[in-house]
Amino acid sequence: MPTKLVVTNRKALRAKYGTKGLKKVEARLKKLIAADKKRGVATKLVAMDIKAEVKPHGAPQVRDHADPEQTKDTIDALFQALRPDYLMILGAPDVVCHQSLDNPVIGDEDIDIPSDLPYACDAGFGTETSAFVGPTRVVGRLPDIAGESDPQALLEALDTATTWRRRTINAYKTCCAISAEAWKGSTKKSVKKIIGNARVDFISPPAGPPWSKDELGPRLHFINCHGQDVDPAFYGDDDAGLDPLAIDQADYDGRLRDGTVLAAECCYGAMLYEAPFWGLPPGICNTVLVNGAYGFLGSTNVAYGPADSNGYADLICRFFMVNVRNGASVGRAMLEARQRYSKDEAPLDPVDLKTLAQFNLLGDPSVHPVKMTAVMKRRKVRAKSIATTAARRKTLLRKGARIGQSVAYVSCKADRSSDEKLRQSLFGKIAGKHYQHLEDVFSFAVQAARRPQLATAKSARAMAHGQARYHLVGAIDVRREHPERRVLAKKATAQPGPDVLVIAMEQDNEIRYTKTVYRR
């Protein structure tokens, strides 16, 4: 059985790069497979569109690389037959498509969620986001540039996956943290959890280009800024509502140290857009992988987080970075982050479900940035984390299955609330004179977990039975009209979504808590 399964679509690669370009990609893949073998990793490449490659494993042929159901069914069948420790998706969505999941955050601008989460789950094909709350597989995507006819970016990303090496924890003891000024409180809390201190050197504004190699030198990057649809940059945010440029993809080109791992909370941070079609350079996520990054965690569309505490995008990014520093592969770091998020945040509200689905790992999932030392094994990492890879996978498989059965979550269907007292209470939670609340308050019933008795904590078992509701209302920042402010809106959508969401949890006819979160 292979240790790592690499899946792709050969015809889609040939259509992009021609026969000559495809041969270059295949030659680099052979080097990757040989390098993995020296590391004790048996890697198998399967072109899902080639019948002769999938039939021996009982998997159906993918006849249309843009069909999510065909792709999900084939990957599931291959995974069941081969049981790899790592699954690497090779190519952007125009080679291996994302899964399109329903967006449970009713009222925001995203019609769906482009996601790789279903590939990490045993659940069969579907579009209901809540079906995928119990991931069990270690998955990452090594993308090329969507719509690009030159394979060079993919070749360079494959070179990094071929030549990577572990480093001691000292190589990852500092963090380049870049934060919008409005969210510096939240960023400081995240960074403290990741590296043990709350130092955030770069707050935008005033931080911004030009960036030096020294400033971008740490091998951990944590970015809590604005992002935009089809945009190769991230932006700051200040009290005046301005969104100055924080960092551009060109700032990373040639300035990033090899082995860097990045987590970006920003909206659209992992959007793999067709750069040639838009006449733009590739996004930051593509650029860092070309420049030697070992992994990039980001969102495919609009993400949310609080201003001064940690929640939603903060948590999934923070969990991932902590796991990397503890010696996990970037793929296992992602899986454990997803599992912890589902378990700790249950019952999952609409923004929780969207957060789980929208954050994807870009990079070879088998890469281990941090070398496990004897001290780390004794003091910092639980015993099961230093067991054999196969034993870890079995543990994670059981854990994911248990989480999937024991977690309660909201339905993607919502009602408009007519409770005027509730409406006025939520409207009052939207702080700041610059916000104008939307009129609709959406209410979501919490569905009981399939097997509530499997929840581990007493409080979790109580909530796993459902019998609660979440209420959600959005607000628009009226400073959008400022002539100097960058409009954070989808290029293809006339009406952008809310800048702020207020989420309230109701149980036994009483509002137990409220959260205010902001569009990243």
What is the total domain count?
Answer: 3
Number of strands: 23
Class from secondary-structure proportions: alpha/beta
The low-confidence runs, each spanning 5 or more residues with pLDDT under 50, are 378-386
What fraction of residues sit in β-strands? 15-25%
Rg over CA atoms = 22 Å
**CATH class wording of the largest domain:** Alpha Beta
Any guess at the CATH architecture of the largest domain?
Answer: 3-Layer(aba) Sandwich
Query: What number is the mean pLDDT?
Result: 90
Oligomer: single chain
Shape category: globular
Compute the number of helices. 15
CATH fold-level name of the largest domain: Rossmann fold
Please give the share of residues in helix. 25-40%
Q: Between the first and last Cα atoms, what is the distance in angstroms?
A: 42 Å
Protein traits:
6-stranded mixed β-sheet, 15 helices, Rossmann fold, 8-stranded antiparallel β-sheet, alpha/beta, 32% helix, 520 residues, 3 domains
Description:
This protein has 520 residues and is an alpha/beta fold. It folds into 3 domains: 4-140, Rossmann fold; 165-372, Rossmann fold (3-Layer(aba) Sandwich); 409-519, no CATH class. The protein is built from 15 helices and 23 strands. Strands 15, 17, 18, 19, 20, 21, 22 and 23 form an 8-stranded antiparallel β-sheet that branches. It has a 6-stranded mixed β-sheet with strand order 8-7-9-13-14-16, with helices on both faces. A 4-stranded parallel β-sheet has the order 2-1-3-6, sandwiched between helices. Mean pLDDT is 90; it is low at 378-386.
